């Protein structure tokens, strides 16, 4: 797999004087050559030795629908583009399973391409698939539990778990909200639209409100790019592997998180025309000016160009 090189972003006015810039290198990219079982020679990867061998056995029941009909049904009813490239499935599983002891909840198992790779790497997989025909066609396995239904309606496990999946693009925000609101979630590895993944991880030099709000508790990482040709039907855009990791130690103490969220929510309202004007209304011009100087922020800097680390400093200085 060849490394993906994104254009270098020049230093911006609001950039902190640290080495903690978000990397514009999004990690590996799946080669978009012909999708044979082994892939092009230049990117051919050996099958990793399975931690947990998957026995070959009969499927739960044979689906009468042809692959073409399955693809069409998924596209129309559920907005899914099924993962077809085995290299992409292996990459996604490698990233998703950081701790093989943890149960993985798979969102939208489809035809089981990712499911099988996850079973090679972890002890237990709970696969959610809303299409009954696709769900019943998934392979029977003692460490696989298939649940036919809506993942978003599922109750999060009480024990520590992870989430992985090639999710329908139209449900990205809902799936991420489910993950962020699950107290026992350790990691979520989600195949989303490429542009969405870049936006959430600051890869454009701008930071979204959701990323800033959750930064004290989660890291957001753009791990890889997956070409549109890795899916069936082929979507119009590439996919991006977005990884959410819960921090072992939050950057803001739990009792102070409501105050931090209020500051961020207030700052993103745009009241007054700029972040400086918005915060000056609440904290006074002189105090806000001193906080901006400490963060090396220009008074007219757009709110989206304020880095998460700078938000943390603003909160610390303005909440005294």
UniProtKB/TrEMBL annotation:
<protein>
    <submittedName>
        <fullName>Putative ribosomal RNA adenine N-6-methyltransferase</fullName>
    </submittedName>
</protein>
<feature type="domain" description="Ribosomal RNA adenine methylase transferase N-terminal">
    <location>
        <begin position="88"/>
        <end position="248"/>
    </location>
</feature>
<feature type="compositionally biased region" description="Basic residues">
    <location>
        <begin position="1"/>
        <end position="12"/>
    </location>
</feature>
<dbReference type="InterPro" id="IPR001737">
    <property type="entry name" value="KsgA/Erm"/>
</dbReference>
<comment type="similarity">
    <text>Belongs to the class I-like SAM-binding methyltransferase superfamily. rRNA adenine N(6)-methyltransferase family.</text>
</comment>
<keyword id="KW-0694">RNA-binding</keyword>
<dbReference type="Pfam" id="PF00398">
    <property type="entry name" value="RrnaAD"/>
</dbReference>
<dbReference type="InterPro" id="IPR020598">
    <property type="entry name" value="rRNA_Ade_methylase_Trfase_N"/>
</dbReference>
<dbReference type="GO" id="GO:0003723">
    <property type="term" value="F:RNA binding"/>
</dbReference>
<feature type="binding site">
    <location>
        <position position="81"/>
    </location>
    <ligand>
        <name>S-adenosyl-L-methionine</name>
    </ligand>
</feature>
<feature type="binding site">
    <location>
        <position position="129"/>
    </location>
    <ligand>
        <name>S-adenosyl-L-methionine</name>
    </ligand>
</feature>
<feature type="compositionally biased region" description="Polar residues">
    <location>
        <begin position="17"/>
        <end position="40"/>
    </location>
</feature>
<dbReference type="InterPro" id="IPR020596">
    <property type="entry name" value="rRNA_Ade_Mease_Trfase_CS"/>
</dbReference>
<feature type="binding site">
    <location>
        <position position="166"/>
    </location>
    <ligand>
        <name>S-adenosyl-L-methionine</name>
    </ligand>
</feature>
<feature type="binding site">
    <location>
        <position position="108"/>
    </location>
    <ligand>
        <name>S-adenosyl-L-methionine</name>
    </ligand>
</feature>
<feature type="region of interest" description="Disordered">
    <location>
        <begin position="1"/>
        <end position="75"/>
    </location>
</feature>
<keyword id="KW-0808">Transferase</keyword>
<keyword id="KW-0949">S-adenosyl-L-methionine</keyword>
<keyword id="KW-0489">Methyltransferase</keyword>
<feature type="binding site">
    <location>
        <position position="83"/>
    </location>
    <ligand>
        <name>S-adenosyl-L-methionine</name>
    </ligand>
</feature>
<dbReference type="GO" id="GO:0000179">
    <property type="term" value="F:rRNA (adenine-N6,N6-)-dimethyltransferase activity"/>
</dbReference>
<dbReference type="InterPro" id="IPR029063">
    <property type="entry name" value="SAM-dependent_MTases_sf"/>
</dbReference>
<feature type="binding site">
    <location>
        <position position="150"/>
    </location>
    <ligand>
        <name>S-adenosyl-L-methionine</name>
    </ligand>
</feature>
<dbReference type="GO" id="GO:0005829">
    <property type="term" value="C:cytosol"/>
</dbReference>
């Amino acid at each position: 797999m060849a490394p993906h090189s994104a254009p270098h972003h020049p230093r911006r006015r609001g950039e902190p004087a640290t080495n903690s810039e978000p990397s514009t290198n999004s990690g590996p990219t799946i080669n978009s050559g012909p999708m044979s079982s082994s892939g092009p020679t230049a990117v051919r990867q050996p099958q990793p030795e399975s931690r947990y061998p998957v026995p070959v056995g009969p499927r739960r029941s044979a689906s009468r629908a042809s692959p073409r009909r399955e693809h069409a049904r998924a596209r129309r009813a559920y907005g899914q583009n099924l993962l077809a490239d085995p290299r992409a499935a292996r990459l996604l599983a490698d990233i998703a399973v950081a701790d093989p002891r943890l149960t993985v909840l798979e969102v939208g198992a489809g035809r089981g391409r990712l499911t099988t790779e996850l079973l090679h790497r972890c002890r237990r997989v709970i696969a959610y698939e809303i299409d009954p025909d696709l769900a019943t066609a998934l392979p029977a396995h003692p460490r696989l539990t298939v649940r036919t239904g809506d993942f978003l309606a599922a109750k999060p496990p009480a024990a520590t778990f992870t989430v992985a999946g090639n999710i329908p693009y139209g449900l990205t925000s809902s799936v991420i909200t489910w993950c962020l609101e699950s107290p026992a979630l350790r990691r979520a590895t989600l195949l989303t639209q490429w542009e969405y993944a870049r936006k959430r991880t600051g890869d454009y030099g701008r930071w979204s409100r959701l990323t800033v709000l959750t930064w004290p508790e989660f890291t957001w990482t753009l791990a890889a790019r997956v070409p549109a040709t890795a899916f069936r039907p082929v979507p119009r855009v590439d996919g991006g592997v977005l990884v959410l990791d819960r921090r072992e130690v939050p950057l803001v103490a739990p009792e102070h998180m409501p105050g931090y969220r209020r500051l961020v929510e207030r700052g993103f309202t745009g009241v007054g025309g700029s972040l400086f004007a918005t915060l000056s209304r609440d904290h006074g011009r002189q105090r806000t000016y001193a906080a901006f100087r400490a963060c090396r922020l220009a008074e007219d800097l757009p709110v989206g160009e304020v880095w998460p680390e700078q938000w943390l400093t603003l909160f610390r200085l303005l909440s005294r």
